[in-house]
Amino acid sequence: MAGSPLSIIAGALIGLGVAAGGYFIGTGYYDAHMGNRVVSVKGLSERNVTADLAFWPIRFVATGNDLGQVQGKIRADAKTIRDFLADYGFEAANIELQSPQVTDVAAQPYRSGPIENRFIISQLLMLRSQDVEKVAEAARSASDLVERGVILSSDMGPSQPIYLFKSLAELKPEMLDEATARAREAAQSFAEDSGSKLGGIKRANQGVFQILARDQAPGISESDQIAKTVRVVSSIDYFLVD
């Protein structure tokens, strides 16, 4: 019988084939408590985007037994890194040099054995730029810093650039409209397959925006890639009427 719960479920199975067109068909169900027939659908919207902000944490370290000499080495290394970044067009405003961390190995209470280098000074220089391609280019040449005598370290955190997409707010209205439209298309197809007409909205959830790596692979995070995909899925329940 047209419009029966059985025909609604059958329509759902037929409608699953529409998912490849950019949206997903959910399942139809009968709300016995309210006496309503409802179809639940999801609409997908995606955009391929490019990161518009990059951070590159450059951690470097100097060691030795003379504190003054180690301090001099860490200052010289900081200048070497600044000069290296200047070669790629980065200015002082793009660079933040954080306070150094000094470790006196001889002062550690549980040490044992001889000390090769008593003092260890580590420091972080943070590069921040909207020119993500230039940051990536500089990072690919980080071995040049090693050739200039800088000892790079990853002991205290990531040492590769971090790429972010900060323009999500500009995409939200258009993508929500698209996701909602695709959900309605799915619901309309569902209603036609079940011999019903599409009614009003019972419940709607705009969904959560996700920023994903465009090329997803094990061990690769979204922040590692300049190319990204923005995705949102809207979930909407429509009434079905005869």
TrEMBL record:
TM region(s), chain numbering: 6-30
InterPro entries the record matches: 26kDa_periplasmic_antigen (IPR052022), SIMPL/DUF541 (IPR007497), UCP029033 (IPR016907)
One of the GO biological process terms: DNA damage response
Taxonomic superkingdom: Bacteria
Coiled-coil positions: none
Annotated Pfam families: SIMPL
Keywords recorded for this protein, A-Z: Membrane, Transmembrane, Transmembrane helix
KW NAD (keyword) present: no
PANTHER family, sorted: SLR1258 PROTEIN
Protein name, per record: Conserved protein
Species, as recorded: Tepidicaulis marinus
